[in-house]
Amino acid sequence: MNSIPLEWKEYQQSADFVCYEHQMDSDQYFIGYFKTLVDPKILHNHILDFLDKDPNISINQLYNIIPIAEKELSSDAKYIHDKLLQGYVVIQRGEQIHNCVLVNAFLFKGRDVTKPEIEFTVEGAKEAFVESLAINLNLIRKRLPIPELCIKEIVIGSTSKSKVAVCYIEGIMNKQYLNTCLQRLEELQFNQISDITLVQQMIEDNSNSIFPQMVGSERPDYVAWALTSGQFCILVDGSPTAVFAPVNLGSFFTSYEDYYLPWIIGSVIRVIRMLSILFSVFATPLYVAVMTYHGHAISNTFLPTIISSRISVPFPPVVEVLIMEIVIELLREAGARLPTKIGQTIGIVGGIVLGTAAVEASITSNLLLIIVALSALASFTSPIYRMSATIRVLRFPFILAAQIWGLLGILICAITVFTHLLRLTSFGMPYLIPFYPFRKSDVYDSVIRTPYSMFSRRFSFFRSPNSIRFNKEKAQLNKDIDE
Predict the structure, then answer these.
(1) In degrees, to the nearest 5, what angle opens at C-alpha 412 toward C-alphas 406 and 415?
(2) What's the confidence (pLDDT) of residue 441?
(3) Spatial CA neighbour of 136 closest among 37, 243, 237, 229
(4) Is the pTM for the entire model greater than 0.70?
């Protein structure tokens, strides 16, 4: 067997690697660790302190008395090297590699649990995931304190060695969906996995589609709800977001805050959200089509207003629309990349100044300015950021189609998108379910937020082995006294 100094020679080139000899009477101990990964308090108080107390202590005795749960004995050189890079302290008696004591002394540095920044809500919990996988799993298990909650860990990334956790509830999760996810993760070949979004793109059914096939969330309560519905979630160490699947198109227009509100209010808000998305996609293409080909469809009541608004604009409608859409995207990107206070100022002041200047310079009409502004606001109503980005991109092919073929072009583009959605799946589950294929029993909670009395069964398209949430008949017999 090679000696310890020879085995650790490759690490000596790193300034943060420590390998020193601890002499105790006639015994010689070698201790190795990366000081940037190891907590010095654990090292000195719980490891080295026991070496100094008893000069004749053996490796096995040392292993038994160290008061740290995560420790083990190993003589596998490769395994020891991997543990060194994970924040373990390795202790070996003598120069030749025999059994080594491996003690986890990882130095944890990370931010505390804070409020959600993307999915902020007035009602409900105010906790969000952080970059630590252990804390994120704690937030989930705290909400689901049941033995059926299972967590499988996989290490992916040949360079990053990122820990990936797949969570599901045994007896509720369909094993076919779960096995498909685990197989794709295990077969994933990539060197650097720095965020969950990379994993999401690599394991989706159709990575070339602009429509996301997994829902991302920074809220533990939303993920817990998804798990109890029969879905699985994926978390990556270093990423403050969890993704869950399988999902359908309606999942991207559903905010978890809808369930904290009375079902009538939640339903109204959800319908408004869906209508806003449709308006965001079709508003500017319809303007181009009507102004270019279908002017006769404009009512005589509005015709004078539209003519006076466009009489001094030198550009055709499609150029006018593209200019304003690109300006909106520039303002949006600038506001997102700049510091918070400056970004808000740029968004408000830039929008007012550029909008007023564009109208006065006859670059655009007042009517289009209002339509583009409302369209931009409507696109923000999607609670899932990736779907919001999809809606932003989707407008441009509709605008070009409207310029080429008018309303017929919008119809052709809509049929193309609809056909793509019909063929799209999420881990094998149809993307447009329960409307295609149609399932009458699952239509509830799709367009409107239904009362909790209708949640006695899980959606059948998740194919859960246990489709019963609660006994509906028993719940009706145990109503409150004032009902």
Answers:
(1) 145
(2) 80
(3) 237
(4) yes
